[in-house]
Amino acid sequence: MEQKENRTNTDTFPIGIFPVNNALEMILMFDQTGKISYANEIVRQKLEYDEKDLCGRHISAVFPGTFQAAEDDFGIKDFELGTVHNLVAYRKNLTCFPVEAKIVKSDVSPDIFVCMAADILEKEYLGREIERIKQESQEAMKVKSEFVANVTHELRTPVNGVLGNVREMLDWELDERTEKSLRLIQRCCDDMNKIINNILDFSKLEAGKFSLEPRKFHFRNMLEYVKANHINKITEKGLDFFMTVSPQIPEYIIADELRIVQILNNLLSNAQKFTSWGKITLEVFRTAQVNDRIELFFIVSDTGIGIDAGDRNKLFQSFSQVDASISRKYGGTGLGLNICKQLVELMGGRIDVESEKNRGSNFSFSIWAEVCEGEEDVLNRPDDIKNPLSFTSLDASLGGESGGSLENVRKYGTHDNQESLKKNLSKLILCVEMENWEKAEMFMETIRQLTEEAPWEVKRIALRLKMAIQKENYEKVTAEFEALNQFL
Fold first, then answer.
1. What is the DSSP track for 352-408?
2. How far is it, in rounded angstroms, from Cα 97 to Cα 26?
3. Angle CA(410)–CA(411)–CA(415) in degrees, nearest 5?
4. How far apart are CA 320 and CA 318, in angstroms?
5. Degrees to nearest 5, angle at CA 27 with 22 and 33
6. Model-level pTM greater than 0.85?
7. Which domains does the chain have, with CATH numbers?
8. pLDDT tens profile 308-358
């Protein structure tokens, strides 16, 4: 009788012509008593059975942890059909391996069950390897972050020691050459401290140990502080600076003031660094409100060198510069914008940039802040109400005085270009007369850019003027200055 049943099942599903016999997935068929009637080739290979050795056995021989050897109820009633389960399949020699299996009823006969299973031994092994590698990388990142933090702290001590002594010496009566050298050392120490602070912030952010410290502060006073940090350097370059603040922003908000200042300082420093003429603008708006929280939107615009569309994706990456020559020419570690991006995201916002080569850049970012009690009326204030910080011009130079467009300023020979050249040349020679060679180099860079489209003889004189300034050769500078003036 048993042989007849086996023959009937085999006749119903002939192994040699069954369409899934060569499938990569293990396929088993068994009846409602649990007796196996079909197993494809991969099953026999995985379970190490002979060609017909498996048919006729109970399904519990393959999955003893899931089914039991019983004719009336072997456990299929309690098994959830049509769902993928993680099971353990046993070989003929009673060794086992994990599988992902799904059992369904056959479309041919309701009394036949089909089991489809995939060997996941390699998958589990790779998963454990990935987890191990992940843990090792996290541990390595932790060790690296601790090392960076310790090294930067150790660096800060001697730098601050040098800086303190230099500041003390600057109070003495010094000759001009000694004072100039001390000022240079002081500037180098300040730059080193900025780099150390960036590395510390970056290591904390990468290690996930950075936390915000929100507190109540006066928003407009914070902006005045930011303005005071940059106004001198901006106006020294002959740039306009405009600041607009929406009256719908409350006087007091709750956020991390220090980190907002850090982001604004970085963006304004970059704007000042990469802008030789024109203007820098800071605008702040309230763009959304959810319960007692508001979204503040900041825009920092400049008329500087701009960025190619293909290079924008490099801006917010760690240790990345748009161009390798940028770091040599303007300085910087490539960490500032990456830190800004992570800080903005910690405050619930995002940072973006719109830019075009030689047409300036617009950096914008948003953050979320909490409104203090008693400030709710400000949120409904009309946006056109007079604001003490709205549209404040801090210097009248190229953009405000000449009224010319930036395209005309860049184009050599135009009225705006010639006026800008005269203005920068007069500032340059004044710096030379005062022996402030550092500022003279700054104005020389602007002159170089203004003469990029000039005839070769003009560009050659500008190059000789630049070399004379770098060598601090007063006689040569005055000679080349007069030569360049003849073309204006």
1. EEEE-TTS-EEEEEEEEEEEPTT-GGGGGS-TTS--TTSS-----SIIIII---HHH
2. 13
3. 100
4. 5
5. 145
6. no
7. 2-119 (3.30.450.20), 134-207 (1.10.287), 215-400 (3.30.565.10), 406-485 (no CATH)
8. 776 666 776 654 555 544 444 545 555 678 888 888 998 999 998 888 777
